[in-house]
Amino acid sequence: MKRENARRDDVCLGTSCCGETLLDDDQYLMEVKIPGAVPLWLAVGLACGMGFIPYAAVFTAILCLVMVVLHYTNFTKPKASHIQLTVTVPENLNYQGLFDDVLDQYTDS
Questions:
Q1: How many domains is the chain partitioned into structurally?
Q2: Minimal CB count within 10 Å: which of 4, 24, 33, 61?
Q3: Is 38 part of a structural domain of the chain?
Q4: Does the residue 90 lie in any domain?
């Protein structure tokens, strides 16, 4: 396993890996790549994992309160019972019947 090292002198990229180890043998470096925002469950999990359990508990309580308020205000309900689907297909594509099986399965006409 590759270990992360740090060095403050002889920082030339051509030299071999040396320097002081940043993490102990029982510690690991984790990188989370998320497009957009960090999911709320991940923020709570990271706070717990780093030992900030009281902060994580308060954050979780606030999130639960927000979710309950959103539920009872019907914030997540669709505004309309019917939604119009528009499919744009290039003119040179022979699409006769191409979407019929999918549209029959997932839509009402």
A1: 1
A2: 33
A3: yes
A4: no
